[in-house]
Amino acid sequence: xxxKQCTTPSPGCPTGHCLTTGSNRPCAARGGTSVGxxxxxLDHFKEVNDTFGHHYGDELPRQIGxxxxxxxxxxxxxxxxxxxxxxxxxxxxxxxEDAIHIATTLLSALSTPFHVEGVDLDVExxxxxxxxxxxxxxxxxxxxxxxxxxYVAKTQNLAVFAYDPNVDGHSATKLALLGDLRRALERDEFxxxxxxxxxxxxxxxxxxxxxxxxxxxxxxLIFPDAFIPLAEHTGLINSLTRHILDAALAQSxxxxxPAGRCRSR
Length: 265
Fold this sequence. Notes:
The protein contains 7 helices and 10 strands. By secondary structure, the chain is α+β, with helices and mostly antiparallel strands. Helix 1 packs across helix 2.
């Protein structure tokens, strides 16, 4: 894939120096941190051009750049790559979870409509996330992998996706599972199985370990090794964790409250 080029000026969105200029030099990070790269692509941008005209399609990204730029930390850099695509360089992140959090923050900044010549335009976007070292070292490789991750995010309606070499356009099964994952939370398809913890000296049950399973409507019971990594790559892991904790605490209350005692282990 050819290297991305910063081609289209946008106020508050520098393009005088490209995030990558075709160099294969390693991306350097500060001690203890990594370099992150986000590739953000607007969803349904063609519909804006087709419905309102290309003038609106030109003006909208000009407003998006400054809003995104205002959400970044000191030292981060955003560039418009042309059309409806932006890249964000994060020179100091603590792994993928940190970069996914920043990507989610940028998407939340787009939730307020943009006012273009009397018309309020709602904007959504998809973001691919890569981390230097973990997903590549040189800018070209990182940009390629960010583009792949963004494609997965867009085609599966995931909003944010961190690059996973095991999930790409050639893995139809994984892509289908990704598409089902977000809907699984909404449909309450995750179930908990409880494994008792026994005191070997007394034989008394002193607690239980909650084991999550996905009761998929078509594939049946799916074990966590098949979906937890996908949840981590999409940023859904926090929602899934809260869901599991809520379910486990509710079950614990049902077990112990009638007996007048409630223990948490």
